[in-house]
Amino acid sequence: MQKLPLMQAKAGMVLARDVFRGNSPTGMPICGKDTLLTDALIARLENMDVQSVSVQGHPVWEEGELSYDDLQRELDRRFEKTIQDPLNAILYDIHKAHLIKSMEGEGGRQEE
Amino acid sequence: MDDKRSELKKIIMDTKTLPTLPGVINKLNSLSDNDKASVQEMAKVVTSDQVLSARILRLANSPSYGFYRVSTISNAMILLGVNVVKSLALSSSIFEIMEKNSVGLWEHSLGVGVAANLLARRLKLPECEEIATAALLHDIGKVIVSIKCNEAEKEILKLVRDRGFYIREAEREVLDTDHAEVGGWLAKSWFLPDKLSEPVAFHHDVVKSENHRIKTSVVHIADVLIKASGFGNSGDCHVPKIQQVAWDTLKLNEQVLSDVVDEIEDKLVEVKNFSLEMIGS
C-alpha cells in the first residue's frame, strides 16, 4: 500500500483504503476501497478537496526514494544497539512487518 | 568537569541570555487562569500577534485536526479549546526557536509530538494536548546546548560520529550534563508547569519522574518510536532502549504498539509535508 498526494494518483490505480471527505475518518465516506481510479473519479475527488489517497502496491517511485533493501539496512542500523532488549525486539518486528506491508504488491503482486 | 555543569546551569538560569517566550504566552496564561476572562478577550490577545495568529489558523486548518475551514482566532479557540490554543501558542514559539537551529531536530520533535498525541489518544489518557506539547519540547535542551556551547556541541557530535555514542552519553562526557537536564532547567526558568517540565527533564529516565510519570512515559515511548521510524534527526540514529517502567506504567502490549506504529507511519507523511510547508513559509 502506498499513500500518495492526489496529484500523483493516476487512472488505473486501485484504492487500498476508503476515502473520506476532509481526509478524516470522521468525515463523510466518499469512495470505498478496491475502487479502480479513473480520470473522472480523480477529478471529482479533487473537487471534494481530498488531498491524498492510499493505493494498492507501490506504483510511484520518486527520485531518491530508498529501495526495500536500503530501508531494511537502515532499520537494522537504527536498532543495532538495542535489538537484544526484548521490548525493543518487539518494536523491531513491528517495524519490519510494516516495511514489508508498505512495499506489498511490488513486482506485479497486486493483491492486498 | 563540574565547573562546566554549574556554568551551564548559570547560563540557563540567567534569563537575559536565553531565548524568551513572547509576552503573548504570559498574557494568555494569566487570562486562562482567570475564570471571568472570555474567549473573545483571549482571542484578542492572540490576534495582537500576527505571526502567531497565522500559525494558529494554519495549525487549526491542518489535516491533523480535521476541521473544515477555520478563519477566525475566536472560532479556532472555541473549536480547539483554550488549552489547545495555549499549547499551540507555546509550541509555535518553540518552533520559532528551533526552526532557526536545525530542521532535523525540529522534524524529530514534531514527529515525537505527533506520536505522543496518537499514543495518548489510543490509551485514552487525559490531557493529550499537554502531553503532545511536552513531547514537542522534549529536546529543547539540545537547542540550548547548540546555542550556548557551540564548541562543545561540535565535540559531542564528533563523539557520536566516531565512537558510536548516544548523544546523551556524549553530552555527559563533554558537558557533565545532558539535554534532558538542560531542558528541565529551561522549562523551570520559563515557569512552565510540572506536567510539561517533568517529561522534558526525565524522558530518558522515567523512574525519576514522580508526579507525572504517565506523561513522561508517553514522551519516552514516543521518542523511541520516532527514532525507530528514522524520521527527522535528533543527533544520533540509534533507537534507545524501551524502559520497562514506562512500558509497565502505560500497560503497553504488542497489539497497541503495532496499531500506534501503523498510525504514526501514516501520519508522518503529512507531518513531512507540513514541516516542509512551515519551513518554506
Write the layout of secondary structure elements.
The complex is a heterodimer of chains A (112) and B (281).
Chain A: E1 2-5, E2 19-20, E3 29-31, H1 39-47, E4 52-55, H2 68-78, H3 86-102
Antiparallel strand pairs in A: 1-4, 2-3
Helix pairs in contact in A: 2-3
Chain B: H1 2-13, H2 23-33, H3 39-47, H4 50-60, H5 73-80, H6 82-99, H7 103-122, H8 128-137, H9 140-148, H10 150-163, H11 167-175, H12 179-189, H13 194-202, H14 213-229, H15 244-249, H16 254-280
Helix pairs in contact in B: 1-12, 2-3, 2-6, 3-5, 4-6, 5-6, 6-8, 7-8, 7-14, 7-16, 8-13, 8-14, 9-10, 9-12, 10-11, 12-13, 13-14
Give an account of the 3D structure.
The complex is a heterodimer of chains A (112) and B (281). Mean pLDDT of chain A is 81; it is low at 105-112. Chain A has 112 residues and is an alpha+beta fold. Chain A is elongated, with a radius of gyration of 17 Å. Chain A has helices spanning 39-47, 68-78, 86-102; strands at 2-5, 19-20, 29-31, 52-55. Chain A has 3 helices and 4 strands, in the order E-E-E-H-E-H-H. The longest helix of chain A has 17 residues, at 86-102. Chain A folds into 2 domains: 2-55, Molybdopterin biosynthesis moea protein, domain 2, CATH 3.90.105.10; 68-108, no CATH class. In chain A, the strands form 2 sheets. Chain A has a two-stranded antiparallel sheet. In chain A, helix 2 packs antiparallel against helix 3 (86-102). Chain B is mainly alpha-helical. In chain B, helix 1 (2-13) runs parallel beside helix 12 (179-189), helix 7 crosses helix 14 and helix 12 runs antiparallel to helix 13. Chain B is globular, with a radius of gyration of 18 Å. The A-B interface holds A 3, 5, 22-24, 26-27, 51-52, 74-75, 77-82, 85, 87-88, 90-92, 94-95, 97-98, 102 and B 63, 66, 68, 164, 166, 224-225, 227-230, 237-242, 244, 247, 254, 257-258, 261-262, 265-266, 269-270, 273.
